[in-house]
Amino acid sequence: MFHTFFSCSIFRFRLPVIFLLQALIFSGVSAQDTSSVDSLENLLSTSKDTTRVILLNALSEIYGKTSSKKAMPYAQEALSLSEELNFKSGIAISYRTIAIAYFFNNDHPKALECLLTSASKAAAIENWNLEAQNYLNVAAIHASVFGHYSNAMEYYTKALTVFESHNI
Fold this sequence. Notes:
mainly alpha
């Protein structure tokens, strides 16, 4: 039994990759590169349409790890503009950046809700990598924040299924 559990494909190859992705996705920014942020903010002042959505989400993700209160308005504007433009990729990514802001603001239930919405939107546009990343983050929250290991395993398995079925 012990050997069988650890010999399944999730533990043999993918689990180290999954944990590495989690660490990268939820790692904090140690020293914010203010020149990059300033450059993005300068570009934002003249940007329109989908370019603006991309910049807003980039800024939200940067701020999300250091100042979730500053990140949220960027992410919400990105979501609003994405919906107005029917920019489906922007919608999926915006929900993810909103989730990051909620996570670092310790609102884990809302983070889960937004990650699952992002996963659903990503699947609808066949962005398998984003869908799987969201499932990994849902699993990480269930395991590390709530201690719900069976729920975590369910979402790790969903991520693995996406990875394997799309050769990611």
